[in-house]
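Session log. Operator J.P. requested a structure for one protein chain; no other inputs attached. Running the standard single-chain path with token output.
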Amino acid sequence: MAVDEIQRVLHALGSPVRREILWLVGDQERPAGEIAAAVRVSAPTVSEHLKVLRDAGLVTMRVDGTFRRYRARREALDGLQRLLVDSGGRWESADDVPERERASARTATAVLASVELACPREVAFTALTDPGIYSSWLGVPVTIEDGHFSATMEWGTQVRGRYEHVVEPELIVMRWDLADGQVPVPGDEHRAYAHFTEAPPGCLVEVNQLVDTPEQATFMHSAWRMVLGRLAQAAPDLAAPDLAAPDLAAPDPAAPDLAAPDLAAPRRPARAKHPGR
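Structure written below.
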């Protein structure tokens, strides 16, 4: 980063109002009027702040009719975080906090999977909550009843789970498990969080899948890439409902990045004992 660019960034971050604006548009595109109301400044004033942020390369602007919509440039913020010096004390726990003894905590590993889709966020959200639409792009019948979902993949693996929390159209919290050669019994489901954010001209879907073992992580890595890959392939058609849905009985075996040879005969790791059980 050149010296003049660094100076513009430092100038942009020197204002508490502009820092608050970055938080507001960090994960969601917002119009200028909404930003002004949130930070309690006038329209001309917020325009000046937004110009400084744009000149520093920290936000982008998109014209939508009579509106100007702003969003933070995540890649710029990520790069900025790497430049900031950590003194080493930021993550040190405070001493003498007796309240901690009242609660328990454990450290878990997560698999992070994401995909950019050529469809609105609402369409992507519906694609994972409407059984008919879900079936159309996954390529196998999916049932969703009273928050419980199930499907049998074309290679025979059975998937069972339930939606714990659904916040339309932003978040789905689910617990799910699979059955291949073992007896499917509840009790070892793994929680996943599916986040849906606007990323014009489409949206971004990010899945955080909690796992307990490296074997589970390897399996979930392949499984979610396959699922999100199929969703990405179908996204343009989902955004155009007049187009015919794909044939559920014959998913394209030659589609790039969608085949899952390592899932064709999944070897399920031994069930790990969860702490506290």
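Operator note: The chain has a mean pLDDT of 83.
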